[in-house]
């Protein structure tokens, strides 16, 4: 049995159309028919029912789809493992991290960690925070970095750092000495407020804002890096954790406006882990000792 027969069968089972299958696989339609026929002969059973120009899966074909996909995945994983071995990797390790944190926390740590473990093939999965705990629980990943605390009792949640929210606005044409005093109320009534790029604090903050700010306009933007870009383009304002905007503030691409309408909440970053092996312990220690200010 050839692996290409399996690939052809999986696509054909999804499209139920040999012409579309041939287009996806960049091969002729007769070749698709040959692959299916050879696979059926090898298995000794029909996988498709052919009725003029239509094909449907037989009961055997429906049962074989899942097994074929697993077989193909095992094959591709094996090839990937061999390539990794040729490159000098001897171990695999997978991290899940939320989009909010991937561009700020991970690069600082990953560079040092990779340098200390040249034999380690690291896979990064960028996932929303509410999905990370389940990935850790299922052991699809070895460790997660999340903006959400763990809810499972058997999953360990380790606070790594806590930071303030900042009121972030586009830069203006004034310098610190000659410009007028910044008025947070004016910004809130003038600009659109980008919200919900963090999974924790927005509902409470919006309730407090709407009690004090008339005519507040808001827009949900689910990704922090998009929010930053929109603010830089002068499209609006938002509340963002300091670590997310640290570089942009230093380079003068964003502006931090003093905010005293009410006390802004702090946000915490957690490591989510089920089993702490040596790699997990070392990575957590590296994270805990890093300054993200």
UniProtKB/TrEMBL annotation:
One of its GO terms (molecular function) is DNA-binding transcription factor activity. PROSITE patterns: HTH_LYSR. Keywords: DNA-binding, Transcription, Transcription regulation. The keyword Transcription regulation applies. It comes from the Bacteria. Residues 1-58 form the HTH lysR-type domain. InterPro entries: LysR_HTH_N, LysR_subst-bd, WH-like_DNA-bd_sf, WH_DNA-bd_sf. SUPFAM superfamilies: Periplasmic binding protein-like II (SSF53850), Winged helix' DNA-binding domain (SSF46785). Pfam families: HTH_1 (PF00126), LysR_substrate (PF03466). This is LysR family transcriptional regulator. It comes from Paenisporosarcina quisquiliarum. Belongs to the LysR transcriptional regulatory family. CDD domains: PBP2_LTTR_substrate (cd05466).
């Amino acid at each position: 049995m050839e692996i290409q027969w399996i690939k052809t069968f999986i696509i054909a089972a999804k499209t139920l159309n040999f012409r579309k299958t041939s287009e996806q696989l960049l091969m002729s339609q007769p070749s698709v028919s040959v692959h299916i026929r050879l696979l059926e002969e090898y298995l000794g059973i029909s996988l498709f029912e052919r009725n003029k120009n239509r094909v449907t899966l037989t009961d055997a074909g429906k049962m074989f789809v899942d097994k074929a996909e697993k077989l193909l995945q095992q094959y591709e994983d094996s090839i990937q493992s061999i390539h990794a071995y040729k490159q000098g990797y001897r171990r695999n390790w997978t991290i899940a991290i939320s989009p909010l944190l991937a561009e700020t926390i991970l690069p600082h740590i990953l560079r040092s960690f990779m340098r200390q473990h040249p034999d380690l093939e690291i896979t990064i999965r960028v996932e929303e925070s509410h999905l990370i705990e389940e990935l850790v629980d299922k052991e699809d990943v070895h460790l997660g970095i999340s903006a959400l605390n763990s809810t499972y009792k058997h999953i360990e949640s380790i606070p790594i750092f806590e930071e303030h929210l900042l009121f972030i606005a586009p830069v203006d044409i004034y310098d610190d000495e000659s410009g007028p005093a910044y008025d947070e109320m004016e910004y809130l009534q003038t600009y659109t407020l980008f919200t919900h790029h963090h999974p924790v604090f927005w509902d409470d903050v919006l309730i407090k804002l709407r009690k004090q700010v008339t005519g507040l306009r808001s827009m949900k933007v689910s990704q922090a890096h998009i929010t930053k870009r929109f603010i830089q383009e002068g499209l609006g304002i938002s509340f963002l954790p300091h670590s997310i905007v640290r570089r942009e503030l230093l380079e003068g691409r964003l502006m931090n406006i003093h905010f005293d309408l009410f006390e802004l909440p702090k946000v915490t970053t957690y490591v989510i882990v089920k089993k702490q092996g040596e790699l997990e312990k070392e990575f957590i220690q590296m994270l805990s000792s890093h300054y993200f200010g």
